[in-house]
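Data deposition worksheet. Section B asks for the primary sequence of the deposited chain exactly as it was used as input, without tags or linkers unless they were present during the calculation. Section C holds the resulting structure in token form. Section D is free text for depositor observations; keep each observation to a single sentence. Incomplete worksheets are returned to the depositor.
Section A, Depositor: J.P.
Section B:
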Amino acid sequence: MPPEDETPSAGWPPPADRRSPDETGTGAVDPWARTAPDLLPLDDEDPTPAAVIAAAHSAAPPDDEQPTAPLAGYAPSPVEPQTAPLARSAGSPAEPPTLPHAGYARQAAADATFVPPPAPMPPTAYPAPAAQAPTPVPGYPASAAPGGYPASAVPAAYPASAMPAGYPASGVPGGHPAGWPPPRPRRRWGRVLAFVVVVLVVVCLVGGGLAVLAFPWLKDRFSGPEPTGAPSPGPNAPFAARQAWIKDRIGTALTEQHRALLAGDEAAYLSVVDPAAPQVLDGMRTQFRSLRAMRVAGWTDEPSNPTPVPADGGEQWSTELRGTPCFVTPTCAKAGAKAQTRWRIRDGRAWLFEWQPVATQPSPHPWQVAELVADAGERTVVATTPDFAGKLPELLAEAEKAAKVADRFARAGATPSRYVVYYAGPQEWRRWFTWNPGDTVSGVALRVSVERWELMLYDDNITPEVLGGVLRHELTHAASLAGPFKDSDTMWWLHEGLAEYALMDGARVRDYLRMPAIRQFVADGWNGDIEFRDPPKGTKGWIVSARYGVSALAVRHMADRFGEARVVEFFHRVVHDGVTVPVAARETLGVEWAALERACAAFVRDSAR
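Section C:
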């Protein structure tokens, strides 16, 4: 749930049909916080957690729209990440459009009215010179060309062999008069010589072609390496052409980084950084080492269109990158880790001159800003700072057990490739993901993209007794909420009910830690309504705890009656397909919702006795 403190966290703009936390009054409430004044008394032996598990849908869904066209020179990884979202059902909201960069919008408007100067006319006394082949930039791999440029730096008319097109078949020049000198019928050495030359040329061409086919390295030996990279259109070229070339140059640099990251080559990864930017070197080095510690196995960058930046000492261009690391497996859902970058173009190459992670929820990601140590299992990756490295074995063991529970609640075909769990100290808790949910929360699940959720646990409020429950709750959010959905406010009871049901993991109802709050809630005159919305801000902690508990017991009753698999199907029909609760109950459970809600309420009252 959103933070309990009064300071709202910066977040993504919510969809048009979703109310903001300010409008709903939702606040993070901790029914078991040490400092909250409205709590039930607790026994010293009560293993109740020090902080409530935060609701996952508190983070506003991020704008996950693809940025403008990716850089032409950027080569994707051999296996593309599985980033395609689930099919959006009828009535699901469209993703919010991405607002263009203000500077780029102004430039685009200028381009629309820009009239290029006329090309200079050649002197009338001489023919126009032939077009010269562009000069390649040595030492860089060829990349896909931006719009308006040939696919490679090789001119389109470049001949297939070293023999220029149109060269005479023999070495005998023509142009002499037909009758002079007089023919010598008995000595036809000229014709014999011509025939021999023709035969030799044919043999050389055929043999040379076969040799190149059999030994491709011979081509470079005799003709030099293939020209690489798109040629620069020049500083006075139209903006669109210049921008396309800049995209290609930045793309080539990102490709070098991508390959170096996956190969574990730190020196090559840092080689794209401008030597005059030591602070960027430090940041890139931290990012590289943290990603490697987390066993990065796939990486993509999605850059926005570069925009020019006035600067001394050369041409500079700014672009925003959205990075996605895949841990352990080469494919995963998008992560949307944002960073603002500035590149200096020098000698046909892009040099990274400025790099700064964006501090807007859900960025920065921990691996962007912190040195991390990590471990990985079959289903999870856990990471923290070196101060808490000793906690990794226990954290990984509990995360692996919780992941097996959470997997049961994912939609078919949408199970996360790996669950990512970060363990934060006080400083990291306030900085990572620009979240800062307050000091009374144990853990949160954050929506870093439409298809991907990641966890953050707070060291101050995590004990061995509650670690497993917190992980089961939050990982179930990460599994069950992956994909587009709407009406998260009205579906609060179902989101939290399923996560709390997973937290219970088949334990006896009478041992459920929220039972004291449920009993008081029922005794105070609860009307039997199951479909709770997000609790308003300022709601007493024990009431929020009771609402969590009532929702959990409602889902528990449905699972006991119809089986867990049918309840999971009911959940996804309502949350992801946008089917109303009554229709989903009728279609998946075979009952009328009004009657089922009365049965759930009776189960809650019986359990509270």
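Section D:
The longest strand covers residues 315-327.
The longest helix spans residues 189-214.
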